[in-house]
Amino acid sequence: xxxxxxxxxxxxxxxxxxxxxxxxxxxxxxxxxxxxxxxxxxxxxxxxxxxxxxxxxxxxxxxxxxxxxxxxxxxxxxxxxxxxxxxxxxxxxxxxxxxxxxxxxxxxxxxxxxxxxxxxxxxxxxxxxxxxxxxxxxxxxxxxxxxxxxxxxxxxxxxxxxxxxxxxxxxxxxxxxxxxxxxxxxxxxxxxxxxxxxxxxxxxxxxxxxxxxxxxxxxxxxxxxxxxxxxxxxxxxxxxxxxxxxxxxxxxxxxxxxxxxxxxxxxxxxxxxxxxxxxxxxxxxxxxxxxxxxxxxxxxxxxxxxxxxxxxxxxxxxxxxxxxxxxxxxxxxxxxxxxxxxxxxxxxxxxxxxxxxxxxxxxxxxxxxxxxxxxxxxxxxxxxxxxxxxxxxxxxxxxxxxxxxxxxxxxxxxxxx
Length: 417
Ligand code: HEL
Prior knowledge:
This protein is an alpha+beta fold. It is built from 14 helices and 14 strands. Strands 2-1-13-12-11-10-9-8 form an 8-stranded antiparallel β-sheet, sandwiched between helices. Strands 3-7-4 form a 3-stranded antiparallel β-sheet. Ligand HEL binds at residues 102-103, 157, 161, 164, 167, 200, 202, 255, 279, 342-346, 369-370, 411, 414-415.
């Protein structure tokens, strides 16, 4: 791992071939020993494809113009797409389309950061101010507090997007410096004493972006590129800021206004400067499957760092939703836990999750937002993909989507719509 870049490229390309199923497995993915005759192999359940498709149809029924999912596992890859990726042309949703992944970008930031910790360029339990003198008003805030959303730094986006469409239009073409965003947060009271409680805040991942740039002397875009995108050959993934376009084949994003019945707002083009290292990556489903598989499969981080990243604490009352270091863990109804992140950026909902061994992964996307019902329905793809036909059936009358808990159960009311 953490080898000089050229070496890393070669090693990662070889490992990637395993993840992609085009090379024989190494120790981590070794084939099981021969079974005694007459026994049944207990493997992971196959995805329930009709249920996967139903989850996507529930998503469009709940207000998304289109939705799609891509599952990758030992039995191969399956994609499903419904609805449209462009409401003007009527072009069908396309499994190869690019889209904005919002906070799934946080896992990219976390990977870069933890590589820098492994390289001893940043201390996980060091004071943020030790690296960025005078940035925060409290020396007790550590790097780990940022990664776990326990810094107490207010999320400036709560005020920014209190009114959904006016909030979006006010920033869609703006370019912020990281410092401007931190200033917005510090103008508000802290939510907690550092370390005291989980409170999701984009501010944390903005400060992590600043730390990456300080420790490396390079931009976050360059570090994503040299540490993740190139080694994993993610051809549809890029950090786009402050450009506003999604290049190539892509889904257009449609934002639901707060006012019932108001027309959808095409929100495809924007700088995403309000998020940057907290959410400005563009990607595609195949790349997201490759990324989460490689990460959980141990291809991007040394074991102690991956163990730290996946050590998650519950964030909701059901205890089935947890957060590690820039990584969510969802405990599904069949007992399987999956790791990854969700994303909400104007016009796009994303899920990108993998099993702990990295062998099964799911990416799902709907080209809408500010529509909690669509997000919850899209979350139903996780149960269908990872639990197969063994998924618990939702109780009669319960919201379609997760059987165990809604996808956004740990989110503030503002985000849950
Ligand atoms: S919010 C989340 C999600 N994360 C966080 C980040 C991301 N996205 C944002 O902070 C965008 C917030 C505004 C989204 C907008 C909409 O729905 O397009 N909503 C409004 O403006 C509501 N007034 C925790 C949901 C995550 O899953 O981690 O991505």
